[in-house]
Amino acid sequence: MTLDLYYWPTPNGWKVSIMLEETETRYNLIPVNITTGEQFKPEFLKISPNNRMPAIVDHNGLDGNPISIFESGAILVYLAEKTGRFLPKKPGDRYTVIQWLMFQMGGVGPMLGQAHHFRQYAPEKISYAIERYTKETSRLYRVLDQQLSQVEYVAGDYSIADMAIYPWIVPHEKQGQNLADFPHLKRWFETVSQRPGVSRGLAVLSENRIKNLDETAKENFFGARQFQR
Ligand SMILES: N[C@@H](CCC(=O)N[C@@H](CS)C(=O)NCC(=O)O)C(=O)O
Q1: Contacts for 14 with CB less than 8 Å, ≥ 6 apart
Q2: Residues contacting 36, CB < 8 A, separation 6+
């Protein structure tokens, strides 16, 4: 096996497990239990200096040399190039996909992540923050709904942009969203959910899905551990 996937079952991890399953790429799964602090291990930090998963190491990179990559968007582009799938070659189409992938990386991921944080994990209920991120999530859902009223998949054909966005729509209830309010997004969500590669991607280590954070996990995610280095 030449490709190592450093992974834990969260929306950012699923992006890559879905892509690997969709392309039927063989890989060696390396669990990084982020609730117990494995993301801070020196050997993992060499691959992912931002102490976040997912990350990959391809021992047989595009030029035959080993390569390691962190940031899920970069990993998706890399795997699309390696497999020749889900990222069109034609510049117009290619940049439509990259544009929606960046929309996910710069907007959907960070904002919906903050909605999860303030709605569920923050030790105090700060109504300003809850309202701000819940409304911003609704706004981003509306942008997607509008786009999906015109095209079947986010960037036209099914692509890495869908694989990046879909995992973040899975926990829509935790973000205070009702998919019935976004009919085109709902139609897309149900279509993507039915893809066998998506089901296989979501099933990877699904027994370890994070439900409630214990004190150790909270300390690892939000406490001094993040700022020690
Ligand atoms: N922008 C990064 C975000 C990755 C990320 O936030 N991963 C989280 C889990 S979803 C993580 O590893 N957290 C560990 C930590 O906060 O220490 C990407 O898209 O790869």
Answers
A1: 167, 170, 201, 202, 204
A2: 216, 217, 220
Instruction: Report, in this order, helix, strand and coil percent for the chain, each rounded to 5.
Output: 60, 10, 30
Say which amino acid occupies 204: V
Do 200 and 43 contact (CB within 8 A), yes or no?
no
> How many angstroms is it from 90 CA to the middle of ligand 1?
31
Atom of ligand 1 nearest to the CA of 52: 12
Query: Which tens digits make up the pLDDT trace of 13-70?
Result: 999 999 999 999 999 999 999 999 999 999 999 999 999 999 999 999 999 999 999 9
Q: How far is CA 208 from CA 21, 36, 155, in A?
A: 19, 12, 32
Question: Separation of 52 CA from ligand 1 center, angstroms?
Answer: 4
Ligand 1 atom 1 nearest Cα: 71
pTM over 0.90: yes
- Please give the distance, rounded to the nearest whole angstrom, from the Cα atom of residue 68 to the centre of ligand 1: 16
Count of CB atoms situated within 10 Å of the CB of 131? 12
CA-CA distance, 185 to 53, in Å (whole number)?
Answer: 27
Give percent of the chain with pLDDT exceeding 90. 97
Specify the amino acid at residue 23.
Answer: T
Domains of the chain: 3-85+201-227 (3.40.30.10), 91-193 (1.20.1050.10)
- The residues, ordered by sequence, that sit 6+ positions from 218 with a Cβ below 8 Å of its Cβ are 121
Whether the per-residue pLDDT at 228 is higher than 90: the answer is: no
